[in-house]
Amino acid sequence: MNKSQFLKELEHNLRRLPDSDREDALRFYDEYISDAESEADAISALGSPSNVASQIIASWAGTGSASPDGEKADGSDADSKKSSGFKTFWIVFAAILAAPIAFPLLIIIIICIAALLVAIVAIVAAIILSGVAIAVAGIFCIIAAFGVIAGSFATFLMFLGTGLFAIGVGIALFWGIILLGKLCIKGLIRLMSNILRRESK
Amino acid sequence: MTFQVGSVLLDACVLASVDAGDAYGYSLTQSLKNVINVSESTLYPVLRRLQSDNLLSTYDQPFQGRNRRYYSITEPGRAKLTDYENEWKIFKRKVDRFLDGESKKEGANGE
Questions:
Q1: At what angle do helices A103-148 and A78-98 cross, to 10 degrees?
Q2: Does A52 contact chain B (CB < 8 Å)?
Q3: Starting from the edge strand earliest in sequence, which strands make up the sheet with B56-63, in order?
């Protein structure tokens, strides 16, 4: 394999990475091979482009997709953080599929990752729905409070207080589980990055 | 049989090597390979991470009609290197003492 073949394959393996990260990596290895005393030796010492790419992707995912230019993708707002979390997940997952892992082991890895992902999504969805349900119940409770206001003021206050409390709990559950869900996805990505790194040594 | 170099020790060695003198990718990899047993494909992710943590910075220098990217250590990088060096001294001393102590015990008990 010569330099341009190596770089072409490496670029192909890194195609899902953001442009700046991919170009930075390609530039590094272009210079690396050019600077080597023997291009052929350097290329064979590097191993397969697929391995090199796996290491790059694993490291990129582990550090929160930071680009060396100083911009961190983690510093962006909550929405893009969520989408970059799932995007990162799929990029690492695709890299694991492309890595030279023995087929039986690969199947086991995929099943475990899928199971964890399903578990996380299911729990998050269930608690989000619970949170919404509790908050809506709280709203109805407040409405009922005004229906009862003609009777006893104390009862009105009780309904009102319970309703407000329920809305608070609902909101807390909602935001809490989204936070927890993001942490779990991050943890899952880190786990996958470690698997990728270990399988491409 | 060689000892595996963990990622923290690898970071320390990279920082130390760049601290000794600015280096470009290939030269840095070669100097490290003389000391620790790393595979060539491991270095780039490490350099990238150290750079994004602001422990290393890069600049370009023209060389034979193209640009060559050099890595140099930053102030935070130097501070981190000092931390690593201190931790290494403690670790090295502990391991030496332990290995030494264990083998002495072995000599006393075993026959």
A1: 160
A2: yes
A3: B23-24, B66-73, B56-63
The two three-digit tokens of residue A174, written as one number: 């909602």
Count of Cβ atoms closer than 10 Å to residue B13 Cβ: 20
Which residues lie below 8 Å from residue B53, measured CB to CB, with a gap of 6+?
B76
Cα–Cα–Cα angle for A178, A84, A17, nearest 5°? 155
The interface predicted TM-score (ipTM) is 0.87
**B42·A55 Cβ contact <8 A:** yes
- Contact state of A32 with B41 under an 8 Å Cβ cutoff: no
φ, ψ of residue A4 to 5 degrees: the values are: -70, -30
Report chain A residues whose CB lies below 8 A from the CB of B45.
55-56, 58-60
| 3-state SS class at B67 | strand
**pLDDT one-digit tens code per residue, B38-85:** 888 999 999 999 999 999 999 999 988 888 999 999 999 999 999 999
User: What phi and psi values does residue A126 have, to the nearest 5 degrees?
Assistant: -60, -45
Residue length, chain A?
201
For helices A3-13 and A19-35, angle between their N-to-C axes, nearest 10 degrees: 160
